[in-house]
Design brief:
By secondary structure, the protein is of the alpha/beta class. It has helices at about 1-20, 60-75, 95-105, 145-155, 175, 205-215, 215-235; strands spanning about 30-35, 45-50, 55-60, 80-85, 110-120, 130-135, 135, 140, 170, 195-205, 245-255, 270, 275-280, 285-290, 300-305, 305-315, 320-325, 330, 335. Helix 2 packs across helix 7 (about 215-235) and helix 4 (about 145-155) crosses helix 7. The structure holds zinc ion.
């Protein structure tokens, strides 16, 4: 019997030294998808769609919740254990900050992750990912939070379906909110003993980004990119077996609504209601994506096996080859004639 036990441990040690991930238990993530619940704490922002004349309201909680749901989905598929502060987007499950901290502390999680979207609060328009951890810029209160924040921000900033105005920003909350008082920082990170961060994925008051964030799949893309950063933090990047391809289809003409500030590719008119088709390299149809009518031109295909694919736009001759890699994002933007 003793011999068998010794043999078991010898084999285990051998397996561990061959592949340390073999010995790791599934990492547990405690997720806090933002705040609000279609109320005043939710930064409601109306927007009018020039093409249809419809008026709709963007709520920060909608995109935070969609991103959170995407993160649960992607990370569970990759073997993580997930806990979340909300299963609905209502005022009732918009928990108090200190309640969230207490739940996180008792969850047995390895990491705390809070999903948000940003706004400048002034007229100036910006767009870049901002990840904030507890501590000073060069001294996180919990070791590892800074490298996690850097990895997540890097994958978000690589998203070519967005238009970015600045490089990524990673900050400690005691440095970033230095005028709030000595070691005050963000309420949701206060008393938090887990490695973790608050992730401001992008700026919803940049109108083209707000239009993209109205699309739940764009929020899922943000989640997918966050998951790549989390994988990197846990040394699990090799475990993911599928990839994603996404992008934006725009017309080769100026945007119809020039009432808002836009930069670079966002100066062109996004294509509404066009169909992007995913094909095998020989042209065989695999799937299609109907772009919504919310002035974002966004499409996405996920859960794809690595390999070569062909993308076409229905009703046109536009076609592009794309390579999908395991546990990575590929991007393919189109500018087409109207
Ligand atoms: Zn927020």
């Amino acid at each position: 019997m003793k011999k068998n036990i010794a043999l078991f441990f010898a084999l285990l040690v051998a397996a561990c030294s061959f592949n340390p991930a073999y010995c790791q238990k599934a990492p547990r993530i405690f997720l806090n998808p933002g705040h609000g619940g279609h109320d005043s704490n939710d930064r409601p922002t109306p927007l009018r769609l020039v093409a249809s004349g419809d008026s709709i309201t963007y709520y920060e909680s909608d995109s935070n919740f969609a991103t959170g749901e995407g993160l649960i989905d992607y990370l569970e598929k990759k073997g993580y254990e997930m806990a979340t502060t909300r299963h609905n987007n209502t005022s009732d499950d918009d928990l108090d900050l200190f309640e969230i901290v207490a739940l996180a502390a008792n969850s047995g999680a390895d990491l705390f992750f809070s999903v948000h979207s940003n706004a400048t609060g002034v007229k100036k328009r910006l767009n870049f990912p901002l990840t904030i951890f507890r501590g000073y810029d060069n001294a996180p209160a919990v070791a590892g939070s800074d490298s996690l924040a850097r990895a997540v921000a890097r994958h978000l900033r690589a998203n070519e379906a967005s238009v970015w105005t600045h490089r990524l920003r990673v900050a400690g909350d005691w440095s970033f909110y230095y005028n709030w008082g000595y070691k005050t920082g963000l309420g949701v990170l206060r008393y938090n003993k887990l490695p973790g961060l608050l992730c401001e994925g992008s700026f919803f008051d940049y109108m083209p980004e707000r239009c993209r964030k109205l699309n739940a799949d764009f929020c899922r893309l943000e989640a997918w990119n966050q998951s790549l950063g989390i994988d990197e933090y846990f040394g699990r990047s090799q475990k993911g077996k599928t990839g994603v391809v996404a992008g934006v289809v725009r017309y080769d003409c100026e945007r119809a609504d020039t009432s808002y500030i836009a930069f670079e590719a966002d100066l062109k008119q996004p294509a509404n209601q066009r169909v992007v088709v995913l094909r095998k390299p020989n042209g065989q149809r695999i799937a299609h994506y109907l772009i919504d009518n919310l002035n974002n031109g966004f499409y996405m295909f996920d859960d794809l096996k690595p390999g070569r694919y062909l993308l076409t736009i229905e009703g046109s001759n536009y076609r592009r080859e794309v390579v999908v890699k395991a546990n990575a994002s590929s991007y393919c933007n189109f500018v087409i004639a109207k």
